[in-house]
Fold each of these.
Amino acid sequence: MGTPPARLQRRRNAASEDAVAEVVGSILLVSIVVVLSAALSLVVMQSMNPVGRLYVDVGARLDPGDATWGNGNERIIIDHRGGQALTPTMARFVLTLGDETQDLRGDQLGSAFDDGRFNIGESWIRVERLASCTPVHVQVIVTLNHGATQLLHNQVLTADAANCEEET
Amino acid sequence: MPRRPRDDAVATTLGAILLLAIVLMALITVRTTYVPLWETASEAEHMRKVEGQLGSLRADLDRLTANRSAQILAAPFTLHAERTGVFDVPKALDELRFRPRSHAYNFSAPEIIIQQRNTSSLQNLVETWQPVSSAPNVQSVERVSNFRMRIEEIRKPGPNEILRETVRIIDADGDFAGSFILEVRKASGPDFHVQHTTRDADGNVLYDHPETVFQGETIRPYWVNLLSTSFRFDTVLSAAEPPFRLELVQQGLRADYTITYEARTEDGDTLVVGAGGQLIEDFHWSFASGALTYVGRNGHYTAQTFTLEHGAVLLDQPDGRAIRIDPHFHVHRVADLVLVETTVPTLTGARADLVGEAQAVAYARATTRATLIGTAPEFTLSIATEYPQLWAQLWTQRLETVGLVGDGTDPNFAITTSPGRATLQILGIHTDPDSPVHDLQVTLRQATVGLRLGP
C-alpha cells in the first residue's frame, strides 16, 4: 500500500467539492422558500382583513325641552345604551326633520363626542325647533374597515306623538 | 463516469416546507384575524341572550306581582358563550349571583291618606277635605263620583250683604257648562236664607231651592252634597264635555270640599283622584329587595355586568353604565296633582353564587303582595343600590317630563345619592314643606318574590 496516485487524489477532491455545492445549494433553496413563504404570509394576512361589525345599542327619543313643542328648544336625543364605544371618525348621525336632512359626521357631531368617544350612559343631544307632529327620522350609521357601513339604528319619531295620533 | 448525486429529496423537502408554510400561514391568519371577530361576535350575542333572559325573568316577576298566583316560575340562564374550539384562549368564567338586601326599598311620608291597602278599599272611611281657598280649581275632570261641600260656619249676613259659594263648570272648549250657587241672604228679623241654584250650560235654572229660613246667628257646620239628585247638578256635570274644569269661588264664606273624580292625564289615561281614605301620620313602608347579577367576563367583547334590582335591569361596563330595562315608575300630572305609579317586585332569598356551570335556573315564587294607593303632601322613596346615579337620572327624567323641577330656589323634588343608596323626595306642586295640600297621589304595587338559583 502506498499513497494513491496523484490523478486519483485529484478526482476524490473534486467529488468532495461537488457535495459542498449541493448542500449549500439546498440550504439556499430552503432559505428562499422560507423567506418567500413568510413574505407571502405577510402579504396575505395584510390583505385578508375581514370586515367585523360593531355591537352597540343606541336609542333615540324626542324631548320638548319645556312643556311646549315648536318653540325652538326641543331636543333630539340619542342615548348610548350599551356595547362598544363610537368614535367621531366612524359614526354618522343622519337626521331628517320633515323635508330637511342633516348628515352629521366627524367634528359636526360635537356634544357627546367631545372626548373622542361616545360611551354607554352618554346622551348625544341636538336642539332643534320641532313643531307638534313633526316626523323625525334618526339613523345612526358607522363606517367599518374597508369602507363597509353598518346601520346601527333606524327609527322614525314623532314630536308630541301622544297628541297627533291621526297624523301618524 | 462519476456517479451524479441524487437530488430527489431536496424537491420533496422543499415541497413539504412549502406546504407547512401554507398551513401555518392559514392557521396564523385565522387565529389572528378571524378568531377575534368570531369571539367578539359570540360574546356579544351571548350577552344579548343573557339580557333577554333577564328581561324574561323581569316579565315573569311582573306577572307574579300583578297576579295572585303561588306558581313557581323558572327562568333559565346560559352561563357560557359558544367558543371557537381549538383557537380560543382560556378566559375567566361568567358568574350568576344573588345578593339579598334588607330594608332596601323604603317608602315614607309625613302623612298619607290611604285609599286602598291591598285589596281593601278605604275610600269611604274618611273623606279628604281641602279648603276652597287653597285649591279653587279642579281640572281635567272626566266624571265626578263624589262632591260634597262643608261650610264651617254660616253667619248672619249684613243688611245688603250676600255670602256666596259658586261652582262653575268650564268645558273642554272653554265654554260655560253650568253652575251651582249657594247664597246666604239676610231675611226679615233674625232669620236668613240659604238658597241653592243650579243652572245648565244655557243659563237655564234647573233648580232653585225654596228659601230655607234659619233663626239664630250662625250655622256650623253646613253640609251640601252637590251630587244630590234633587239639585240636578249631577245632570249638568254629566252633560258637560269632558275633560272639564270646576272653578270654585267663594265670597264671604269659608268652605272646604271633598271630591272624587276621574281625571284625564296628559297622555290620555284616566285615573281616579281625590278619593277619601285612612289618614296615617309618619307612614313608613320597608321591604327587603336583593339584586340578581350576571357578570360577563368577556375576553374580546366589552366586559358587561347586568343587574336586576327593584324591577329594573341595569348594565355596567368599564366605560359607563345605563339602564337597559326601565322599572315601572310612571309619573302623570293632572293640573296641580302629581300621580306617581310604581310596581316593584322585591327579590328575597339566600345569597348564591353560580360559577363554572353551563346553565343555571332562577326559580321565582311570590310569597306576599301589597298594594298601596293614597295621597300625600310629600313622600320619600329610598332604595339600596350599587347604581345610585342611574336611579337619580331616571327619576329626574320622569319627573321633569311632567314639568317638575329638581333645582332652583323652589324645587318640586330633591334627589340625594350616596354610595349604596339613592333617595327621592317629592314635594309636589306645593313645595312648602308645611303645605297641607295632598298634591301627590301614589300607587305602589309590590310583591315579595323568593328567588333561588340552581344549576
Note: The interface with chain A takes residues 2, 5, 7, 10, 13-14, 17-18, 21-22, 24-25, 28-29, 32-34, 37, 40-41, 44, 266-268, 301-302, 304, 315, 317, 319-322, 324, 390, 403 of chain B (CB under 8 Å).
Amino acid sequence: MGTFMGTAALPGRRSGGTMAKRGDTEAFDAFVRARLAHLLRFGRALTGDEHAAADLVQDALERTLMRWSKITSEDPEGYVRRAMVNRSISVWRKLRRERLTDQIPQQTYDDPARDDALLDALRRLPPRQRAVIALRYYEDLTEAQTAATLGCSVGTVKSQTSLAMARLRSLLDDTDEELS
Amino acid sequence: MNHLEDRVRRALRADVSGVVTEQVLADVHRGADRRWSRRTASVAAAAVVVAIMGVTGVAAQLRGDDGAGPSPQPTTQSPTQSPTTTQSAGPELPPGAAQGVIDVSVVGPDAVFRLTTNVGCVACSTVWRRDASAEGGWLWLHDFEGEDAYAG
C-alpha cells in the first residue's frame, strides 16, 4: 500500500471518473479523514498485522468509493466494515497464504504501548475467529449484530468467541511461560 | 469482564501509527479509478458481444423468414473466398474466417469485434475480437451452432 512512513506529496485528484459529483468526493474524503484511524485499528484486529490492515482498509475504501453515491445515505462505515470482514475471510479462503508461525513479522517502528504478544496470538487464529473478536471486542457489537455482520447465527458467534478466547488464552500462557 | 477480555480490548484500541491520511486518500482514489476503468471496459465489451449476438439472432430470423420454403441444406462444397459486406481496415482474419462473409464489424471503446458467417457450411458463424497477439490478429470468441448459421 505504501502508506506507512510515506511522505510523498498528494497527487492531483480526479473529480470525475469514479465520482459523479464533486460534493461526493469531498464527502468521501471527509469520511476517510474522520474514520481512517478507527478503520485501521479494526483492520489490525481482523488481520493481526498493521501492514495487512492498511492493505485491507485501502481495498475496502476503493470499493466503497465506487458505490459512494448509493451508500452515503445509509451507513457507509457499516459498508466498509462488511467489506473488510468479507475480504479478510475470502482472501484467506482463496489464497491460503496465511501460515501459523511463531515468528512475529518485522515491524517498521517500535511502539511500547503495542501488545505484540497478543497481536501475535491473534494472527494465529482462523480469520473467522479473528473477525468475531474484532467485532465483539473492538467494535463492541452485540452477539446479534456480530451475527448479522458475519451472516451467521448467534449460536455460531458464541461458539466462535469461546473458541477464540480459549485459543488466545492458551497461546498467551505459552508465551508467558517462554518468557519466564 | 475478565482479564483476557480487558487485555484484548486494550490491545485492539492502541493506535496504528505511521499512516499518512492524505497518502491513503490518494492511493484510494487511484485504485478506484483503476477499478472503474477496468469495469467500464468489461461492461462495454460485454455489451458489444451481446449486441452482436442480438444482431445475429435478428439476421437468422430474417433469413428464416425469407426462405419460408424448404429449410437450407448443408452444402458439401468446400468454403470459398467471398466478398465481405462490411469489410473494414484491419488485420487479416484467420484462414477459416477469411473465407466467410463478415456480417458486422463493431468498434467498441477498446476493442473491435466481428461476426463472420462462413460460406458453404453450417454452424460456422463466429464472433472474433481483434487481438494483435493472436494468430492472424483475431481472437476467436464464440461459434454459433445450428442451421440458423447456414449462409451457403
Note: The radius of gyration of chain A is 18 Å.
